[in-house]
Structures are given as C-alpha cells and as structure tokens.
Amino acid sequence: MPAMSAIEVKNLSKSYPAAERPMPGSWLGGRRSAERMQALRQISLTVEPGEIVGLVGPNGSGKSTLLRVLATLDLPDSGEVSVCGLDVVEHAAAVRRKIGAVLPLDTGFEPRATLRENLKFFAALSGRYIGPPDIYYALDGVGLAERADDTYASLGSGQRRRMSLARAFLADPRVLLLDEPTRSVDAEFAGRVADLIRQTAHSSGAAVLLVSHNPEEIRNLCDRSLLLDQGRLLHATPPRKPAVAIHTAVGR
Predict the structure, then answer these.
(1) How far is residue 250 CA from its own chain's centroid?
(2) Which of 62, 146, 159, 195 is most buried, taking the most CB atoms under 10 A from its CB?
(3) How far is CA 21 from the centre of its chain?
(4) DSSP per-residue letters across 81-97
C-alpha cells in the first residue's frame, strides 16, 4: 500500500469578508458590504513525510491563509484538506496534536509565566508525555535554556520568535507549518533553525511547509517550492531529491 501523504489539499478555496465601503452618493453613513476577498482559489497540493517544501509568493498571495487552514485556525470554504490522513475540520483536535506551527501572530503564551511553565502548559495540551528533559532540550535547541526561569514578558521580539520555535518542535510533530520562522533572529541563529528543520524532516520524517521571503533560504533548505499569487498556485518546482520513504511516520 502506498505511503499516505502528510499534507493533502484538494481544490481548497477560502475567502474573507471584505471591508464595508460607502454607498455611491451617500455622505450620511449609508454603507454596503463589499464582495468577499478571495484568499485561496482551488488550491491542490501534497507534501510527503520527510519533505521540506517552500511556499513563496508576494504579500497577500494566500501563503499564511493556507497555513492557518492546515493548522485548523481557519475553516475552508470548499475543498478537502487533511493532515496525516485526518480531515482538518472533522478531526481538528487530533490534527493539532500532529502539528507544530510558527505563525505571524503567534499568541497563547502567558506573559507572567516562565518559559519553562509556558512549555509545560503546551506539553499538557499535546496529548503526549513530555517530561522536564524534553522541555530542557526544546529550550536548549533555540538557545534559551539559561532563560528557562525568566518570564515570557521579559523576552525581546527575536527571543519570542525562538520560543515559538521551541513550542513548535516540542511534541515531536509529524507536520511543521512555519511562517517565516527566522524573522527577527540573527544570521547565526537562522542557520541553527535550518539545521533543526533538516533534522526534523530528513531524520525524523516530519513534513515541513515553510513560508519564506528569503530566496537563499528556500534554495538551501527546501526540497522543492510552490509559488502562490493572488490565491492561485502558479508553479511547482520538481523535487531535487525523493521524499524520505517513511511509511509509518504519519500514523504516529
């Protein structure tokens, strides 16, 4: 039996209500709703276990919307979307236990809690046993082990990005959804993040969907790339090498 794709998207469309606009000829406040803004238009793609796929395109092309649908944060208007064989609408809770995500508006951290306490909280939500050594290794992997007992509020923007990465990698995810994970970090740490992504994908068999505006990062890190523009998938490069053949990874 062929291996199951880690991410499978078929004919996905997603729109949002556009801002209201004034009615023509009205200065008394009469307004009407504009047409809905189409963020994704009939998108179809797959990502295999062990594969790192770059998602590129201009701002507003639908990249972040695609990741939000995969992360179960937004509902699709139409189409089919599954992660590790689980429908993102019908099995949203189970999907969330399979993924690690770094998104632009990454919220959920408690400002007054320590870094260790924050990760303990997310560990409890993951549905897996994650002990103190796992939390230490997650913090150490992003260079924050020495700050484990500092509060989240005390971190700068780059360090908060590191915490988002620590949370994403914490529960041994089967799928990583990364929206500009190296934004606000220095070049040395960006290289460290790239190594973490490679190890998670090529050694552990996780599928990675990576949004980046850095062409060098896409070239050096990704096995192939997808180009989005105005919500449409315009081009997919062929893989530089076969995806890792791991038949049991998505079932974990």
Answers:
(1) 17
(2) 62
(3) 33
(4) EEETTEETTTTHHHHHT
* Token pair of 144 as six digits: 């924050």
What is the C-alpha to C-alpha distance for residues 229 and 235, in angstroms, rounded to an integer?
A: 10
81 near 100, Cβ under 8 Å? no
Backbone angles phi, psi at 88, to 5 degrees: -70, -15
Residue with tokens 């996780």: 206
List residues bridging with 81 in a β-sheet.
9
Tens digit of pLDDT at every position of the chain (252 positions)? 456 899 999 999 999 887 654 455 544 455 555 578 899 999 999 999 999 999 999 999 999 999 999 999 999 999 999 999 999 999 999 999 999 999 987 778 999 999 999 999 998 887 778 889 999 999 999 999 999 999 999 999 889 999 999 999 998 899 999 999 988 788 888 899 999 999 999 988 999 999 999 999 999 999 999 999 999 999 988 876 544 444 344 445
Task: Give the side-chain half-sphere CA count within 13 A for 41.
Answer: 12
Token representation of residue 176 = 């990583």
Dihedral angle sign, alpha carbons of residues 71, 72, 76, 80: positive
- 3-class SS at 101? strand
- Structure token pair of residue 232: 């449409």
How far is residue 142 CA from its own chain's centroid?
17
